[in-house]
Amino acid sequence: MDLRTEHTELVRRAINQDEAAFEQLILLHSEQLYRTAYVYVKNEQDALDVVQETVYKAFISIGQVKEPKYFVTWLTKILIRNCYRVLNQQTAVADLIEIPVKESSREEHLDLIDALSHLRKEYRDVLVLFYFHDVPMKEIASFIGITLNTVKTYLKRGREELKKQLGGLDYVEARSSK
Amino acid sequence: MSKHDLQNDYNQIPVPHAVLQERIRQGMEQGKREQQIKRPKRLRRLVVSTGLAASLLITSTFVIPSFATAMAKVPLLGQMYRPFLEQENTGTAISQKQLATKIDQIVSDNGIDIQVIDAYYDGATIGLNLTATGVPDVKPERRSGLYELFKGDKRFAGTETMELVHFKQVNGIWQGRIEYMLGETKLQDAIRVPVVLTDVFGVNGNWTFNVPVKRLPAVEQVYGTTVKNPAYQTEVTLDKLIQGKGSTSFDYTTRSPKKERARVEMTLLDPSGKEIIHNWTKSTPSVKRTKTETAAIEQSRLILGNYVIPKGSYLLQPSLRIDLETQPIPLTEPLPYRQQSETHPLEMAITSIETTPEQVVVEFSTNSRSSQFDTKLDIRNSMYLLKGTEPSNGQDIKAKVTVLDAEKQTFRSTFRLPEPSEHPQEEYYLETGYSNTVINTPLALQPIPFTVK
Q1: Tell me: the pLDDT tens digits for B404-452?
Q2: Which of A108, B178, B324, B410 keeps 20 to 30 A from B35, CA to CA?
Q3: Any idea what the CATH number is for the domain that residue B359 is in?
Q4: How many angstroms separate the CA of residue B257 from the nearest CA in chain A?
Q5: Domain check: are B246 and B346 in the same one?
Q6: Contacts of A65 in chain B (CB under 8 A)
């Protein structure tokens, strides 16, 4: 059984309330979930909170996944929504307290994270789904509820914005031309 | 930075693996707890019908004592729970009959003494009576202890092993009772019950016991009587009755179509058809669940605490609540889109979906006025438009419903979108009232006659 078939089989079992399969799936995507959460919320504790909340929501609603191939997109969408919930809470308390940030873990990735956090929400979501979770453009369009052309526009503009901030993204263009 | 590898940079974000795995475990545990005690999503739609809502809760949550206790405090709903709570407590009858075995195990930690006074094993129920001394003065909701039975050992297949025991002050002594219903098919004559309390009156500690219990004399009567309804493709067999000293248990088997889960409710009748106990749903999780190519076979046990069935003839009337899986329906589904059950005669068909940037118009028909059965819910008013397929946030869009043809039961639901959408068919999904109506329209089977000798 190849990896893709194995993944599809795991999703199918998870949809049928197989807890072990669900856990296996989540562990398989756990690093990705954590890293994406971190990109949005920018600190370890909040990222962990987001992952926990995402696992909880996914667990109780896995039965809603109609096609196994949409599992990753579905899961990422829940994750991103949770990230925005935490970001809203962060904004609410930002005036009152300074949120401590673990500098040691942030330093090396400050560029990427900061650059992404300065993007418009729409661009950031599309870039995260496309580059970090390998979701095809058509699927992004369907799940975010925008047209394929809008996805392409957001990707293009998001890349341009990132370019400005990071100083060149040759690889990004290489992938998008595939 | 001249060349920046976005994915590479992303992959460099350090992952705290151990704590991440722990958080994933916690997320799953949270989900499991939610699934055990949650009201089905459909219940949100049924608040207008307290009786129905309560009966739904009973079917889905009765294995959780603390939830049932909490519900007993809720007006209206509580009225339906109270009799069950009184019935469920086998320990009440055992204490009155002084049949519990003295244990006298005492454990102290952090200034709190917990004592297991006595224990019992009646029919398929085991129980422990506890006292607590040295407890702090805390709010009523914290006057409880978190316990785990059997150290997570799943062999007993019964009710929840991790629960709260609530303490009440009687004559100046804090008393609590742990009761557990065994799900094993073949019950043992004696069991050792490991119990660990870890949080008592808000104080963390460890109070560990190992309590031996010996089964009180019980009478088991085997029946094997089956009632079938070919139209519903479901049959229920009364396998066995266990008559204890303070409880009565019924073992039964349900065979239903593989894809559809039937929850069984029982009503106990005398031979003339007069109800003795209505919609008696207290049950352990299924003792054993198996699937063949076409059918799901579920062995279950219903336990009636504080009730010893007298000798005589009876009827046991099963009724089935069919719990269908629901999926949000994409607006792009090929039409007509039919919703039907292998078991339940209710049918529904979406015949047309039209979208504009401002609204979604859905036409559908049902056979809910069919004389074969009586639906208790108005299926036509139970259609919602959801944004996306994620769990609902309770802000789903309600429709304005027009009756197109009352005789043919055809309707039109018009949903006004909260804001114009260029592609509503990609953004929105439909949820119909079909599965809600099905689960709330139980199907009665023929009563099963049996005699208690």
Answers
A1: 988 888 999 999 998 888 888 888 888 888 887 787 777 888 899 999 9
A2: B178
A3: 2.60.40
A4: 16
A5: no
A6: 389
